[in-house]
Amino acid sequence: THRFHVEAPPVFEDPNSFNSVTSPDIRNPAEIYISLIIPAYNEEHRLPGALDEALNYLQQRAADDKSFTYEVLIVDDGSSDGTKRVAFDYVKRYTVEKVRVVLLGRNHGKGEAIRKGMLHSRGELLLMLDADGATKIDDLEKLENQIHVVSAKKGGGTRISDVEISVFGSRAHLEEKALAT
């Protein structure tokens, strides 16, 4: 007899209610404007600064423009320090709709952590931000404007991988890889 293992769909846990929230899938249509993916490996001490800066910026943009919607996905890449605890503290403070944590059981490396975060994102635009705060979130609008300019020059509908900006990825670009995962 053959036994088949069917993996349960990934979920996010809401630390306030302990309810499970079904994880989105890259093949689903975007539900929000931007997903900010933060890969974190042993970033217990630097993560709060990056999250405070990013969330303050995102909240201000959302207050100024009601159509601006966002989520922050913290991907704990198998950390052995308190990164997971710090991340869940932010979920408790901002809700599972705004901040989510993806836990990788072991360290897979930054690239895979980013990929896993993107595969479970809901955003139309996907942005990776380092947990060390090296990139300033205030530059986000400049990147968005550049993407729109380049896309308009090419007649719209261009693949984001054709654009000379490497921080963003598109949902469509990741779909093929998601099918192989």
Automatic annotation (TrEMBL):
Q: Which Gene3D superfamilies match?
A: Spore Coat Polysaccharide Biosynthesis Protein SpsA, Chain A
| Name of one Pfam family that matches | Glycos_transf_2
Q: Where are the transmembrane segments?
A: none
Glycosyltransferase 2-like domain location is 35-145
A single GO cellular-component term on record: endoplasmic reticulum membrane
**Gene Ontology biological-process annotations:** protein N-linked glycosylation
Q: Know the name of this protein?
A: Glycosyltransferase 2-like domain-containing protein
* Organism for this UniProt entry: Genlisea aurea
Q: What is the lineage of its organism?
A: Eukaryota, Viridiplantae, Streptophyta, Embryophyta, Tracheophyta
